[in-house]
Amino acid sequence: MSSAFVYAVWAVLAVALFGAVLWSRASDVSIARPSAVLERLASGPVLRVVLVVGWMFAGWHLFAR
Length: 65
What we know:
Number of domains: 2
Structural class: mainly alpha
Order of helices and strands: HHH
Number of strands: 0
């Protein structure tokens, strides 16, 4: 995979996040707190395992390079 493509994907994600925060502050729509999202994701044992495996996958493929 080309490094330019990877940088483009990260740039799109950053712009989307920044846009969501601006939209949330400009209107009455609120973005869920990360703790609330993680609490909901980790509510059951199966979801907790999926969350941990997903985090391991992301860590291995995105941060360990």
